[in-house]
Structures are given as structure tokens and as C-alpha cells.
Amino acid sequence: MAQNRIASIDVLRALTMLLMIWVNDFWSLIDIPKWLQHASATEDYLGFSDIIFPLFLFIVGLSIPYAIAVRKKKGDSNGAIAKHVIIRSISLLIIGVYMVNFESINHDSTSIGKQWWEILMALAVVLIWMNWKRSPLPKKMHIPIQLVGLGILIWLAVIYKGGTNGDVWMKTQWWGILGLIGWAYLLNGLVFLYGKGKLAVIFGLFVLLNILVVLSHSDLLPKLPKHLSFLGVWYGGTVPVFTTGGILATLLFQKLFINKSKSIVSVLTLIGIICICYGLLMRPYWGISKIQGTPAWVGICLGIGFISFAVLYVICDVKKHTKWATIISPAGTATLTCYMIPYFVYPIAILLNIDFPDFLNTGVVGLVGSFVFALLVVLLVGWFQKKGFSLKL
């Protein structure tokens, strides 16, 4: 078990990606239950949508030990693996920065308009990060295609105009979802690699990051110097701690409980309960808030991550019930491809004036429609995969 990938990781990733596409479509709906939506910045509240991103960060951590083990088995040195981790992280940061700047683009001031800028951004990502080696296209076309994508990205940056008056250029802002994942992956990947995968090292990082979360909300954490402000994602602890939790869960599998499924499930569930209790104990001090990244939100979502993994491990690896997840499997193996599809669909729908009647975007009917949309995205990506097209960082 130490080196073999377990089914529950891919199934949990697939479910989380499917749900991420679903909740990201809620903006197009009206009159949907509050408990499904994101809480506002000032609310002491945890909506279903507030759980999805931290769960995805947790899954990134679950996969890190296996991914690094595979590379070491191929004979890669620590330096080569570190280079791979850094390149993947930078790729995520670049895509994340473009995506977060799209949110604040000024439609009227940008020469090609908001929708075409979004389409071309998504196209550039596809051209650069498509796994062309597995595609049916001849090898001689791979680099030229990637250079075209790079050229598009550079051009989009040149013509970008953001802000209310269209006088603001691209900024890192909060890095975007993919950018935050990149920061979490970079820190945890390098610590795991150079910490030699030791459980004690990862547990120490897990405790340290949780302490940083509390200190940052207690105003006891000194401010970073301006020239180091870009490390704020690490310094605050909130984002990377979920990924560290995922690594911790996998290491418990690999190092302590090999072939003892009952012990694994019990320990993961117990850790999950402890995390949730910790979160609830922290709630009176800073409330539960995803936007603020409070200790309560961190603790509760970590607990949900550990318990979700334990439940799916029983279903998928102990009971061997995996056929039910076959339909969504592309979301677990071509996750970035799934994430990119809506960046084509939404602007194209706007440009073509495709608009559904209100009753199809309202309440339960709207929620079902959005879920069907998410499922169709996954099925489309599965079709692309069969044709040899999927993104890979």
C-alpha cells in the first residue's frame, strides 16, 4: 500500500471537482438555499460552498507522497523533483493571476472586451499546458503550438485594462484559486521532499501552520517586510495547512497502518473529530469565515477532509465499490481540464446571447440544471481524454 495509489484519492478528487464546477455556477442562479452558498465576509457561518476549496487543497496533499514516490522510482534526483514542483507551482501561479485579474477587467476599456479576453486566456492555457505528448498531433507541432499560447498570454497582458476607470494593470491581488493551490503545493511539496517524507516533519509543519493561523487572527504575528509580502499565503498559514493535512493523512496510511484498514479508518475519523471540535472551540473568538480564513473554518474543514477521506476509503478501497464513480472519473484524472471548460462556456454563452428562462435558473430546478451542467463538463472532458487531449502542468 505504501507505493500503490488508493482509489479513494481519485474518487474524492473527482467528487470535489464536480462539486466545485457546480457551486461555481451558483452565480447564475436565483432563489437557492442559503446553506449552499458562500457566507459573506462578515458572517459567522459555514455554507456548503465554503467547504469545497479547502477540501481540494486537502486532496492536493493526499497526492503529494504518491507523486514524489513515483518520480523517485523512475530515478529522479531530489533536485529534479524540486524543479518539477517549482515549475508546476509557477504554472499555477501564472494561471491564477490571469484568472483573478479577469474578475476585475474593465470591459469597455479593454480593446477586445471582457468575454474575448476570457476566451483567449483559456485558449492560451490550453495551448501551453496541454499534454501534447499524448495527443495525436505530430511532435513537430508541439513547441510551435505552445509558443502561440505564450504569445497570446503576453498579448493579453499588454492590452489588459482593469479597475473602475480602466487605468489599472494586472496585479497578483489574492493570486486566484489556482494560484493559492500553487503556493500550498510549493511549500508542502518541498518540505515533504527535503524532509524525506518523515511523519514528524509533516506533523510539525501542520502544528506550525495552525499556530500561524491563530497568531494572525490574534494580531500577534509581526507584519512581513514589504519585499516579502508575496509570501503572505505561507505566513498566514490558512491555505497551506489544508494541504499539509492531506499529506499527514497519506503518511498515516504509508507508515503506521499498512494493511490495517480498521485502524486507518478509526484514526482518520478520530483526527477529523478532533479538528472539528477544535474549530468549534475557536468559533467564539473569531467566528467561522472562509473569506477571513478563521481558525474555526480551518479546523472544521480539516475535519471534514479527514472524515470524507475515511468514508471514501471504506467505500472504495475496503468494500471495492468504485463503479458508481466511473462516470465522474475524468474529474479525478483531468482535473485542470475540467476547471478550464467553464472559462470557454460562460463567455461564449454571453457573446451568443444564450439565456435561459428564469424558471430554469431558479430554486431546485436551477440547482439540478447546474449540476447537470457540471456533469456534462466532466463527460466532455472524458471524451477529450479518449481522444488524447488533457491538460498537464
What does this structure look like?
By secondary structure, the chain is mostly helical. The longest helix is centred in the C-terminal third of the chain and has 26 residues, at 261-286. The model has no long low-confidence stretch (mean pLDDT 95). The chain has 15 helices and no strands.
What structural class should be given to the helix and strand makeup? mainly alpha
The biggest sheet amounts to: none
Q: What's the number of helices?
A: 15
What is the radius of gyration computed over CA atoms, rounded to a whole number of angstroms?
A: 21 Å
How many separate domains make up the residues?
1
Shape type: globular
Distance between the termini: 26 Å
Percentage of β-strand residues: under 5%
Q: Please count the beta strands (DSSP E, at least 2 residues each).
A: 0
* Average residue pLDDT: 95
Order of helices and strands: HHHHHHHHHHHHHHH
Helix % is 55-70%
Low-confidence stretches: none
List keywords for this structure.
mainly alpha; single chain; 393 residues
